[in-house]
Amino acid sequence: MILFKQAASLQQYLQSIRQEGGSIGFVPTMGALHKGHLSLLETAGKENSHVICSIFVNPTQFNDPADFEKYPITLEKDIELLEQEGVDLLFLPSVLEIYPNGTRNLPTYDIGFLETILEGQYRPGHFQGVCQVMHRLLDIVQAENLYMGQKDYQQCMVVGRLLQLTGINTRLHTCATLREPDGLAMSSRNARLSLSQRQTAFTISDVLKNIQATIQPGPLSSLLESSKQKLELAGFKVDYIALANARTLELKENWDGMEQLVTLAAAYLGEVRLIDNMLIQSEK
Ligand code: AMP
Question: Using a CB cutoff of 8 Å and minimum separation of 24, what contacts does 182-187 make?
Answer without folding.
Answer: 183/209, 185/36, 185/151, 185/274, 185/275, 185/276, 186/34, 186/35, 186/36, 186/151, 187/34, 187/36, 187/151, 187/274, 187/275
